[in-house]
Amino acid sequence: MDPHERRRQILDRSAQLFASKGIAATTIREIADEVGVYSGALYHYFPSKEAIVTELIREYIDDLNGRCREITARTQTPIERIEALALLALSTSEDYRGATTIWQREGEYMRDRLVEADLAETADEVERAWRAAIADGVAEGTFRDDIDQEVFYQLIRDAVWQASRWHRPSPERSNADLARDVTRIFVDGFRPRAG
Predict the structure, then answer these.
(1) On the CB side of 23, how many CA atoms lie within 13 Å of its CA?
(2) H-assigned helices in 22-139
(3) Who's near 23: CB < 8 A, 6+ residues apart?
(4) What b/e readout covers 159-179, taking b as 16+ CB neighbours within 10 angstroms?
(5) Are 188 and 79 in contact (CB under 8 A)?
(6) Mapping DSSP to helix (H, G, I), strand (E, B) and coil, where does residue 36 land?
(7) pLDDT score at 195
């Protein structure tokens, strides 16, 4: 097998194992068994289990940030940006189901890996995009100024982030449909009241 294909296979199988068993409970031997190599051969591709986790995080964040930059480069209203960011979160969670599940289960461990891999600042890029869209909406009067922006951000982020636990896109209910509905639910409550 081509070294790049083997590396990809190791990452994909590791993500599945980490998501189902947890990182600490998954051994290098189990990963090697999953990809059909000896444990020692795994070290040819990654020096440690933590290096596999770090690479999974790096791929996830690089793709997420690349997509986020495309959104923030567009001229959109704050509501359109929030809907686009919600769709981004849902789509990325679907594309990186293993990494998302690992992150949801082992958030503190993953945050430590981010810091060690010097990815913490990069990982916060999407958060800054959400916060900017919310602040712009308040500044232009589209959103209420009597609700704490932090509360709004944390609630909508958690609603979208946790949706991957129960939502599976289908022809009847796409990620775009859910992003639109989540945005409507939250934004309608964040609009200024008449009178």
Answers:
(1) 22
(2) 28-35, 39-42, 49-73, 78-95, 97-105, 107-116, 120-123, 125-139
(3) 49, 53, 102, 106, 109
(4) ebeebbeebeeeeeeebeebb
(5) no
(6) coil
(7) 59
How far apart are alpha carbons 23 and 16 in whole angstroms? 10
Q: According to the model, what pLDDT value does residue 32 have? A: 93
- In order, the DSSP letters of 116-160 are HTT-HHHHTHHHHHHHHHHHHHHHTTSS-SSS-HHHHHHHHHHHH
Query: Can you list the residues of the chain whose pLDDT is less than 50?
Result: none
Note the pTM of the prediction, 2 decimals.
0.85
Tokens of 17: 């194992």
Q: How many CB atoms lie within 10 A of CB 104?
A: 15
Looking at residue 156, its pLDDT comes to: 93
- 66 burial class (0-12, 13-18, 19+ CB within 10 angstroms)? exposed
Tokens of 184: 């409507």
Query: Could you tell me which residues come within 8 angstroms of residue 69 by beta carbon, excluding any fewer than 6 positions away?
Result: 125
What residue has token string 């040819």? 44
Mean pLDDT of all residues belonging to the chain: 89
Residue with tokens 């958690």: 158
| Token code pair at residue 42 | 């795994």
